Amino acid sequence: xxxxxxxxxxxxxxxxxxxxxxxxxxxxxxxxxxxxxxxxxxxxxxxxxxxxxxxxxxxxxxxxxxxxxxxxxxxxxxxxxxxxxxxxxxxxxxxxxxxxxxxxxxxxxxxxxxxxxxxxxxxxxxxxxxxxxxxxxxxxxxxxxxxxxxxxxxxxxxxxxxxxxxxxxxxxxxxxxxxxxxxxxx
Amino acid sequence: xxxxxxxxxxxxxxxxxxxxxxxxxxxxxxxxxxxxxxxxxxxxxxxxxxxxxxxxxxxxxxxxxxxxxxxxxxxxxxxxxxxxxxxxxxxxxxxxxxxxxxxxxxxxxxxxxxxxxxxxxxxxxxxxxxxxxxxxxxxxxxxxxxxxxxxxxxxxxxxxxxxxx
Lengths: 186, 165
Hints:
The complex is a heterodimer.
Chain A: H1 3-7, E1 19-21, E2 24-26, H2 29-38, E3 43-47, H3 50-59, E4 82-86, H4 94-103, E5 109-113, H5 114-119, E6 140-142, H6 149-165, H7 174-182
Parallel strand pairs in A: 3-4, 4-5, 5-6
Antiparallel strand pairs in A: 1-2
Helix pairs in contact in A: 2-6, 3-6
Chain B: H1 2-15, E1 20-26, E2 29-34, H2 39-48, E3 56-64, E4 70-79, E5 84-93, E6 98-100, H3 109-120, E7 123-125, H4 160-163
Parallel strand pairs in B: 2-5, 6-7
Antiparallel strand pairs in B: 1-2, 3-4, 4-5
């Protein structure tokens, strides 16, 4: 290990609790998988308006979302873990968004960025979907109109916490199936 | 401008007796209002007669009158060779919002008439594909009519007391 890395206080990921001895380390498989998942999320940006511009700033070198293991944006829902919905979703776009969500493989998370995606925002009108949680389940909401990059990063960290602490069985649980069924998703 | 308007007024009165309701200049723009029953015939002549040759349909849109009892269709016509423009208005009862299509005169009217149908519920008789174009197909209102509220009626977080709905 080089001197630079030794001196650096950089901590890529915290070691989970477990039994440690010379030459071995024992811990729960869920924790290890969660750790790996949380630090290698592939986000799918679904950016429709000004929140998408804030997202671009978040991806840029100044705020640099790549620090959290997510420099690889996935523009195919089939390879994405995290759906980031940023911006106003018109009612006509609702079925498309839902289809994108349905194409994502489990485990999948949804981050709703900004007032419009979360509640319709100022667009209280006949043509705008009043919150994406009417068509797909949402894990974390980021308030703001638009939110600052720091807020988006905070939302991402919350998603990482969810990914880290999720049990391996959650996606097979009857509660989760019930949740999806309440949205009419198989 | 006034000369153009006078010519059109004279022309329509000669060829289509009783079809012209009003001819006026609004905001420096010649505007004629015609009966809706034979609007198609008048518009077709305005395009095909070489004297006018309004070969370009700039815009077609709908409107609702202030008394909320009538709907209207407005045609913006343009003759690029002579560089003259004309606005044609026609009104009809809201309970029977029907008018003949002009897609056979100007193919460009196709999507504009679909949009007008989408937002005002005006049925264009003879349109080849009259269905909603911008709003979701499931929508059961015509959102730009005054009888329907602007706001989304399914929203729960805004109560009328606070937001003055």
